[in-house]
Amino acid sequence: MTVTDQKGLAKDRILEWSISAESFLETASVQQNESILWIGSASTPSLTRWVSERTQITVISPSLFTSKKSQFDVAAAQLGIHFLDEGEEWLRKSFHLLKPGGRLIIDLAEAITLENIEGKNYIKSLPDYWDLLREIGFEAIFVQQITVRSLAEAMEQGWIELTERAMFPAVVNRFIALKG
Predict the structure, then answer these.
(1) b/e for 57-67, b at 16 or more Cβ within 10 A?
(2) Could you count the other beta carbons within 10 Å of the beta carbon of residue 41?
(3) Domain 21-178 has what CATH class?
(4) Torsions phi, psi of 161, nearest 5?
């Protein structure tokens, strides 16, 4: 949504927060020339389209784990980090792979939301996530808590992981954290 003045000129853009891929990508606000490290699965239709429009997207790989080069402008993960064996390590590594001034955009579900979901490996609560990001070295951390109240709402927003076994309301924390 865009806020306009009386002359119809755009003033500010306001994000409409949801757990949809579209909302996540809008929050990431990646510019055409930025390089992106994608942590986790990159399998939603919106993400696939987004990836095809940009050429500098790298999905995590074991070779990056040993890299010492700060090479990415953005590190992004939409819930996929919960299903990685080394989720916390990838959060730590993402900091080192970001260029100075780079940003991490990540959706991290609350523990209660993931309670009945199979395959999850990395689960914390909002204060734990916040403390970890600060410990890693991220600055200017912003978080928005997003709640989905029903299965129908989860399906409408395209969050497939929630449609199988999640309890509602489901809560996701969207973090934007900057590397100084």
Answers:
(1) bbebeeebeee
(2) 16
(3) alpha beta
(4) -60, -30
